[in-house]
Specification:
By secondary structure, the chain is of the alpha/beta class. The protein is built from ten helices and 18 strands.
Length: 364
Amino acid sequence: MSTTTLLVRQDALAHTALRTTQEVPLADGQVRVRVERFALTANNITYAALGGMLNYWQFFPSDETGWGIVPVWGFGDVVQSLHPGVAVGERLYGYWPMSTHAVLTPARLTPAGFYDGAAHRASLHAVYNQYVRTRTDPFYTPDSEEIQALLRPLFITSWLIDDFMADQQFFGAKRLLLSSASSKTAYGTAFQLAQRGGLEVIGLTSPGNVAFCESLGCYDRVVAYDAQEQIEAATPCIYIDFAGSVAVREAIHQRFSALAYSCAVGASHVNDLGGAGQLPGPRPTMFFAPAKIKKRRDDWGAQVLNERLVAAWQAFAAAVQAPPTPWLQVQQHQGPDAAQALFATVLAGGGDPRSGHMASLQPS
């Protein structure tokens, strides 16, 4: 049996390669999972762009110096097991390598799932190390795997951003500016914010995506990046940066003199990343979802946190799939070559924002 993996140059993300290797026998306590299908979105580009800073490359280390494996969210089936608590045939939701197979070392097992206890993941954030058994997962239905893979991890980040801002009383501001407004994480955040009332949520996007963002129904206004003069500048506001664009960040900090908080979330504009030097106003602060979810787990307990997340997810999923025309149009990409081509497309920022891309390195 062999494993095919998509490798990415850590210092030049446009350079990718497919590698096929023979699988090594499992050690006692390990399981082998066939990675069936996963989502590939701008979120995964953020993992790659910030891989060195936030340790994303460490989850699935490559044997080749300078090359990394980008993590993805999706579903897999256990095909071999040397662990008594995990059965062959179990379907799991979790964090996978862009590969045909993954080897896990299950630890801290419960009826709900387990954590990967591999030594190299011990110091990494637990939220990424957890694997959920679909048969007991309250998020899961067999007919919603695609939107779960595509939107569930992004929506959890969106929910946490909204919760964090509310917990901070929105830093005294009533207006929020969201860049990359057509992105799925920005949409989820705007969806949550729109339910609170008393806030003005403004989406910033490229001119070609203005109409699409307006159609989502959760932005009070949508403004093109090059038309920021339409927004009155003296009102206190929060900037939530989903793009990571230095140029946009500089323009926001220069124009909005009453900026109350600057929140850096994503890095979808990989060709425009980097430090912006000395900016007026508050220092941009990185939002790291695992730290926020740990805080809420400590505050509320795991059960209450999960109940609130499930309820919010169900409302969001219903909106995404609302007839007559569901917002999300899922496209399938099967096989190693198709997955490699899709990575290049997503990296370049191409494609319709309505599209959701599901991929698999399994042969077509």
